[in-house]
């Protein structure tokens, strides 16, 4: 199937659903519990409307924006996602090349399939390292030093996973890393030969950032020991920008700002952790009101279109991160599929700007309803 069949994020998802093994698709697509949190996210986004404006010269539109003092060519970037190479071999590097082309941040997950040093090199410096605090923190702080040595200047601490959420869809498949291949998984892979053969040729995806002395990673290891003291230690040892991701409470946001955090990412982890969490898009304007108009505020969770990006910006986001849909595009059409969906999202965003009378992006647009 030609990548020209991708006209929306949902098109990419449907193609990916046919091509990926059930276990892999449900790992990428699934959410916590009965998945009502994901439905809540979608309903909340759908409930937001944009205000059309007329008779404004919008013949030339600029999708670029400033982000920590640099110019990004789009107001959206790549959220940190673990084990991206399950969608296709070298998916991490496809995302890195995309980040380099558009000068947008590639969130490099702690549990990436490709070493953090290689990704920032391919991304030409357009990469932020995402950190999980786990266990007693020894391995965590080793990763911080590695990221610093590799040239990362922005660190993203994810705080909304003190324990890994229960996602029944992946649990029913027996999903774990590394894979445990039983009869069910063997049949699943056999029924998806295109994916299986390409993965076989490339080699089994690994937790690449943990292939270092003195550190054995356990995906299910508790991350519950992280405290405000942990944050203070991280702030002291990290000389660059520090972002905290996974914030859904106004008072927590105020505390993070007071603690010297450089930016906050409002997120429910794509509804993958706490099914009953509020829709982040509903909390975003409350946090914006608390931290003020100048404080860097980012957003992810449930974004499926360029119009969704615009909605988030109108609710107070300075920048938006995309997740699952980029993996679906890769699974659907490889690197060409990824660039195809990126062009679709860019076009959707540009059209939404024209319809709402904007030739340039307006930060915190939702604070000015005039």
Automatic annotation (TrEMBL):
UniProt cofactor(s): FMN
Residue span, FMN hydroxy acid dehydrogenase domain: 1-370
Keywords from the UniProt entry: Flavoprotein, FMN, Oxidoreductase
The keyword Ubl conjugation is assigned to this record: no
E.C. number: 1.1.99.31
Entry-linked PROSITE patterns: FMN_HYDROXY_ACID_DH_2 (PS51349)
Keyword Nuclease: no
GO MF annotation terms: (S)-mandelate dehydrogenase activity; FMN binding
Gene3D superfamilies: Aldolase class I
Class of enzymatic activity (EC top level): oxidoreductase
Residue positions of the active site: 269 (proton acceptor)
Annotated binding of glyoxylate, by residue: 27, 132, 167, 269, 272
Domain of life: Bacteria
Binding site residues for FMN: 80-82, 109, 130, 158, 245, 267, 300-304, 323-324
Family the entry assigns: Belongs to the FMN-dependent alpha-hydroxy acid dehydrogenase family.
Protein name, as recorded: (S)-mandelate dehydrogenase
Originating organism: Ascidiaceihabitans donghaensis
Gene name linked to the record: mdlB
